[in-house]
Amino acid sequence: MPDRTDTAMLLALVTACLALQPLSTDVYLSSLPHLVDYFDVSRAAVQQTLSLFVIGFAAAQIVVGPLSDRYGRRPVLLGGLVLYVTASIVCAAAGSILALIVGRILQAIGCCTSVVIARAVVSDVYAQEDGARVLARASSFMALVPLLGPIVGSWLQVSFGWRASFVLFTAVGLTLAVLAWRRLHETHPHRDNDALQVGALVRAHQQILRAPAFWAYALPGALSYASIFVFISGTSFALITVLDMPTKYFGYAWSLSVTGYLAGTMVCRRLLGTWGIVRTVSFGTALAAIAGVLFALAIWMGLWHWTIVVGGQFLVMFAHGINFPCAQAGAVAPFSRQAGTAAGLLGALTMLVAFAIGTWVGSSREGALYPMALAAACLGSGIFLSARLLQRHR
Description:
The chain is mainly α. It contains 15 helices and no strands.
């Protein structure tokens, strides 16, 4: 385990790398309804800037993980951040919705590199439960991004328009690239020279995907992320378009709900020290089921009010703050020599499930809160059942 100074720097880098993903999605959420009018396209077309970002993120992780197992964490991270900065500039300058979508796909590839490498670095340096605590702590700090990001995004949209968010992404990506170049040392002790060979790659993926211990954490974790993606995809339209909330207030409503995630990560850290990872996951997945079902019941009872949406999102994110740090650490820990590949598979699975849910919610008819409610209830129940079915493998 690294000394205190190295631990603080590593925590800062891991937090910044993980935060790039919510930064890239949450800050520009308030701009989504306005992009419909700006480009004179359908809501479904605008939704592709989010859903295809997820697809790019998912697909890239299959390659990024093995790349880092072969060449090391540091060079792959730096290359990904350079791509992220370049893609953010493309998005800021986009003259059509197609150009924006292409830029977002490229941005997703660069962004996913930082997330995969962060998970792999933690697995390189820490044992399973120590790694879960580090990721929970990083998630607590990272929660400031979805907490404050939409407020900043709403202000940028009202003051400067949608391009300002992508200028911000460019500046953040460039800052992180400089920080990683100067302060991140290589953490991968065992370079796998065969990691990128097709046969070895297939065998590595098969080995991980056949391991029940991987699915015991990966499946609840993927469903948990999908449960918050229900709100990432639908909340801006639900609040601004359906419930007539002014754009300038959206960021505050979103941030209020995201405090649930911050609280969940703080509870996770305490529970891990007292209960261990298995009982913590059991508790968190039970909360996920309760949160999803309660939100669905409120919507089906006709309680269409912004407080219901924000309250439901708060509860779902609270459960996610407990479940996801455990899932990230638990799914990768058994594969010390293939941590990058395992982290990539976890990320790909997570994003594919999120893409399916986000596409369905985003393409639902204008004004419908029912798809959000149905998805939240089904996913919450799925999180609970998958964790119980696979509990013996943890």
